Amino acid sequence: MKMIKTKEPLLIEGQGGDDNYYVLPMGTTLYHDKSFPEGHDRYVVYLNHKGAIAHEEVPMKPEYGGSFIDPLWLANIDADTLKDIFKRFPLSKNDISAALKANEITKDDLADIIRAMPD
Which residues pair with 41 in a beta bridge? Predict the structure, then answer.
């Protein structure tokens, strides 16, 4: 399978459109599985896990044709999506401060950001 390594985090939509988002970290290797005529691709991600996983069995049904694939959607993070997420999960001053420090944003960078904000 063709492999790609992500250069930025990607959003994983929750199962069944549950309005939750999860993050696939930057640097994750994705294995190309299939391209669809509708214009999207399917990728495989391999994960390691220690210990027991709380789960339920998925019974194989005749309509699955011997194979059941139930993919989640993966999306690039854009400004509109971030706005929607931050509306549901507002950040405190401490959250913003920690994020800025973790990303090594300078005071000059922050001043540029504030100047670019609408009045």
Answer: 35
In angstroms, rounded to a whole number, what is the distance separating the alpha carbons of residues 82 and 97? Answer: 17
Q: What is the DSSP string of 88-100?
A: HSPPPHHHHHHHH
Question: Length of the chain, please?
Answer: 119
Question: ∠ CA 74-92-10 to the nearest 5 degrees?
Answer: 10
pLDDT in tens, 6-38: 998 898 988 876 777 788 999 999 999 999 999
Tell me the one-letter amino acid at 104: E
> CA–CA separation, 33 vs 31, rounded Å?
6
3-class DSSP string for 21-61? EEEECCCCEEEEEEECCCCCEEEECCCCCCCCCCCCCCCCC
Give the integer Cα–Cα distance in Å for 41 and 33.
8
